[in-house]
Amino acid sequence: MGSSFLRIMGGSNEEKKILTCFVNYIRFFVKKRYSDNYWETSKPTEIIDIANEIVRDLEYNREAFPIDKELLIELLYILFRWMYKNKWTDHKLVRRTSAEA
């Protein structure tokens, strides 16, 4: 799933580095939370369920994955929307606006 996501995302070399870092962080977190073979055996639906943990734990993993928290949240939203549109999940994520916060 991560490879497919990276292939469809365009951008400059710097943007591609950020996206690769983002996908690697998601893989790292999922592997830590579930298993080494999660990507081969499961649909990535559970990633949506642990999105808050992914964001919260960024603070502890910032040295290895230097992504800004707001950027991580935006990229997660884009990834989850892409996953839904491409039938990787049936979970539809609704973006919370600042008025709802």
Main sheet: strands, sense, barrel: none
Order of helices and strands: HHHHHH
- Oligomerization: single chain
Backbone structural class? mainly alpha
What topology emerges from the helices and strands here?
Elements: H1 2-8, H2 13-33, H3 38-41, H4 45-49, H5 51-61, H6 69-85
Molecular structure report:
- This protein has 101 residues and is an all-alpha fold.
- The protein has one domain.
- The chain is built from six helices and no strands.
- Helix 5 packs antiparallel against helix 6.
- The longest helix is centred in the N-terminal third of the chain and has 21 residues.
- The model has no long low-confidence stretch (mean pLDDT 81).
State the main characteristics.
mainly alpha, 64% helix
What's this model, at a glance?
With 101 residues, the protein is mainly α. It is 64% helix and 0% strand.
